[in-house]
Amino acid sequence: MTSPTTQGAASAAPAWGLARSVANRAARSLLSVALTFLGLTCVTFFIGRVIPIDPVLAIVGDKASAETYARVRAEIGLDLPLPVQYWRYLTKVLHGDFGNSVITSRPVLHDLLQVFPATLELALLALLIGVVAGVPMGVIAATHRGRWQDQVIRFLSLLGYSMPVFWLGLIGLLLFYAKLGWVEGPGRLDVAFDDIVGPVTGMVTIDSLLAGEYEVFWNAFWHLLLPASILGYLSLAYVARMTRSFMLAQLRQEYVLATLAKGLSPWRVVWVHALGNVWVQLVTVIALTFGSLLEGAVLTETVFAWPGLGLYMKNSLFNADLNAVLGATVLVGVVYIGLNMISDLIYPLVDPRARDQ
Question: Residue limits of the ABC transmembrane type-1 domain (predicted)?
Answer without folding.
Answer: 116-347
